[in-house]
Design brief:
Blueprint (H helix, E strand, L loop, with lengths): L8 H24 L2 H8 L8 H22 L3 H20 L6 H5 L4 H20 L1 H6 L2 H5 L2
């Protein structure tokens, strides 16, 4: 008999934030592929975006819309996909400051603070994704019977 493991609150919050954040990001992604509209809305304040940055946004949305529901359902692969992409995203953002957002790009003195906060949030997410409760929730045996 399989025991049902209650989903940890942190997993629920991370997953729901991931899903809704990805859905909200689709608007931004749509604007990225319409530069004339973005120019009108931003009135020149928004930075120009490269194809590489556009592809990062699209992949992030796809990861969020697949890993978020997978984590809610207790699938271990969802946790691994999200955490792997999150670590890669933080590493990429250190080499390309525009990936940290327009505010970090426009105010160079705040870049160190933004990087510090990004690292702290990353470690908090990884802690809550891989602590003892989360590991029990994501047990492979549990998912095979679903």
């Amino acid at each position: 008999m399989m025991r049902l493991m209650k989903r940890p609150l942190a997993i629920t919050l991370i997953s729901v934030f991931l899903i809704f954040g990805s859905l909200a990001s689709t608007v931004y992604a749509w604007l990225l592929f319409h530069p004339e509209l973005m120019e009108t809305i931003g009135q020149g304040l928004l930075p120009k975006v490269t194809r590489f940055e556009q592809s990062i946004v699209v992949v992030s949305i796809l990861v969020g819309l697949t890993a978020g529901p997978a984590m809610l359902l207790g699938h271990h692969w969802g946790r691994m996909v999200y955490s792997g992409w999150r670590v890669c995203g933080v590493i990429l953002s250190f080499f390309n400051p525009s990936l940290m957002g327009p505010s970090a790009q426009n105010v160079p003195s705040s870049l160190g603070l933004v990087k510090g906060i990004t690292i702290v949030v990353l470690f908090l997410e990884l802690y809550y994704l891989f602590n003892r409760q989360a590991n029990a929730y994501f047990l492979p045996e549990k998912n095979q019977t679903l």
